[in-house]
Amino acid sequence: xxxxLEKTGYDPEGKxxxxxxxxxxxxxxxxxxNDGKVNRKIIYDFKGHPVQETGMGxxxxxxxxxxxxxxxxxxxxxxxxxxxxxxxxVYTGLNNxxxxxxxxxxxxxxxxxxxxxxxxxxxxxxxxxxxxCIYDENKNRLRFIVVENNxxxxxxxxxxxxxxxx
Length: 166
Prior knowledge:
The protein has 166 residues and is an all-beta fold. 0% of the residues lie in helices and 60% in strands. The protein has strands at 4-10, 16-23, 26-33, 37-44, 50-56, 62-69, 75-81, 90-91, 99-100, 102-107, 113-119, 125-135, 141-150, 153-160. The strands form two sheets. Strands 1-2-3-4-5-6-7-10-11-12-13-14 form a twelve-stranded antiparallel beta sheet, with no helix packed on it. A two-stranded antiparallel sheet has the order 8-9. A hairpin with a 5-residue loop joins strand 11 and strand 12. The protein starts with a strand and ends in a 6-residue tail after the last strand. The model has no long low-confidence stretch (mean pLDDT 83).
């Protein structure tokens, strides 16, 4: 069945600001700026996971972020390239390496993220974080440990809490 559903959003001036399309069960969201120029487009898989995000990055350069998932449906990582397919660094946040090209994730048997890795343009590992959590019988986190293994420095964070049930 070839169904097409579409939803369109407009800004206060009546110009299209967002378009959401569903074709054969695949969702696409496009946002617009500056008189109809595409600002960002996100394509989802049949399970509702974003698989590709294309948008205008710094200095109006195109960023294409590809998301990957493991067999359990958990995100296993993402990578960024320019419109020609060349690896491209993107801002990742202040607690991570400021810029990286790719990030991967590892999970324990319960589906908890226990490690994440950051890579540069040469696919060289530039930082690695490990996380260990201990839960009680009600699945509340009692202990949370994060170790950053960054080149030239390291951090260790330990958070513990006691939970009393009534």
